[in-house]
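Lay summary. Proteins are chains of building blocks that fold into shapes, and those shapes determine what they do. In this project we predict the shape from the chain. Here is one chain we studied, written as its sequence of building blocks.
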Amino acid sequence: MVTPPDAVNPYGAAPPPPPERSPGSQRPRTIDNAFWAGIASPVVGFVMFALAFATISDAELQMVLGEAGAAGQPALSLDQARALFQVTIAIAVVFCLVLAGLWIMFLIFMRNGRNWARIVITVVGALWFLLTIPTVIGGAAGGIGTALVAVLQLATIAATIVYAYLAPSNQYLQPR
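And here is the predicted shape, written in a compact code that computers can read:
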């Protein structure tokens, strides 16, 4: 005699749910600190971006046009250069918003206990740190104000990474 298939659940039982964290393994404050320092990083970055581009004057645009004309490139009027500059800023802002969204997504994953997200944050944060250093040294527009905001951004990136690797964070992000 053949046993008829189970009409209610032909595939067997569902897998058990993942184990809940024990009461002693609540998210440590160091992870929350890393998360909020990480949130501050793109905010400070947008302030730095705005300062750098707000300080570019028509005289500087005119100088760039003069250099482009001397190099044999087609001449643009100051209005055309300003419009091109504004389009470039808009594209850069959209690109930065996408990157900031990804950064925040990885911070959320880390906050929820994903060690791989901490590794991604470390790699991206280290690259971000290295790319921000020239602004501090003086290689970007905006003068001292932009440089000071860049120092603040370096501090938020460093704090994010340091907090993510403190002992309570390491225990929280250990595989279960």
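What the prediction tells us: Residues 33-56+78-172 form one domain.
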